[in-house]
Design goal:
Blueprint (H helix, E strand, L loop, with lengths): L1 E8 L3 H10 L6 E7 L7 H8 L3 H6 L7 E10 L4 H12 L8 E6 L20
Antiparallel strand pairs: 1-3, 1-4, 2-3
Helix pairs in contact: 1-4
């Protein structure tokens, strides 16, 4: 099994949750977080630069502000990793800086607190 962690735009979380549910992946954890990518993008400056304002273009890349984001955690059997990643990308890809990141990491075990059951059986029926 693998844990898939994704950081996405705040305004994309509902679309992402719906896309995952539609793909048959219903268990997930999400929370608000702050972050930024390596590009140091200030969205106000980016908008100004896209509109052609020279002042904004000159300052672009100099901001280290952290932006509100959503972190999403999904644990799935190995056979669903690519489907999960593809679904998250499809729901979030705009082609603009700030679309997010996805990390896939191995999960050694899952344990149900309620039943003490462990392993793949703890995951939703896939």
């Amino acid at each position: 099994m693998k844990e898939i962690m994704a950081v996405v735009r705040m305004n994309k979380i509902n679309e992402t949750k719906k896309a995952l549910i539609d793909a048959g992946i219903s268990s997930m954890t999400a929370f608000e977080c702050l972050g930024r990518g390596k590009g140091l993008v200030n969205m106000d400056l980016l908008k100004g630069a896209q509109e052609g304002h020279e002042e904004a273009i000159a300052q672009l890349g100099q901001s280290d502000l952290l932006r509100p984001k959503r972190a999403l955690f999904v644990v799935v059997p190995d056979k669903l990793v690519q489907k999960t990643v593809d679904t998250i990308i499809k729901a979030n890809q705009t082609g603009q800086p700030g679309d997010g990141k996805i990390w896939v990491q191995p999960t050694v075990n899952s344990i149900s607190v309620r039943t003490s059951e462990s392993g793949d059986a703890v995951l939703d029926e896939f």
